[in-house]
């Protein structure tokens, strides 16, 4: 997003020439989650921006290295502690905002649900990957919006923890599987042998389940 705003001010073909300006803006900006800029957390002080070149230079302070290093270490420790606290507060606030957007059916222990997993596992085709997986059974409720699930057809798998927004009801009638069993066509074999031909229904004494086009 930041690089995109820079590209809008210059030809898009030269976007790589704008990376230094983009990085400077990012490293010198205060992040809302930490309350500090990345430069402050890395160097212990704010970056000197290009605009400061036009200002009168400050007289260099003659300081001993040991006191300066100790002061820098103290500032960094304080900045890290405050950044960690601010990050936790921001994470809690973001979680509350996300949970407030959760609405829909009410789930209880024992309900069957589908689980949304948008990330395709390595080695699988993204075009053929089905993000809704399951069905799962809700085995526990950790919070109003967090559930523990167990796969209905693979009970020995590990329990999965999922958010409410990643679930949808699975309307099932079978307790074992939702997969439709394969349809086996019925073929009749002539008494004299030869190609088997498909019959509309099974149940006769001369009928048999053979692969399509099977020969006796």
UniProtKB/TrEMBL annotation:
Molecular functions per Gene Ontology: nucleic acid binding
Coiled-coil residue spans: none
Annotated segments matching region Disordered: 189-216
InterPro entries found in the cross-reference section: Retrovirus_Pol_polyprotein, RNaseH_sf
Name of the protein: Gap-Pol polyprotein
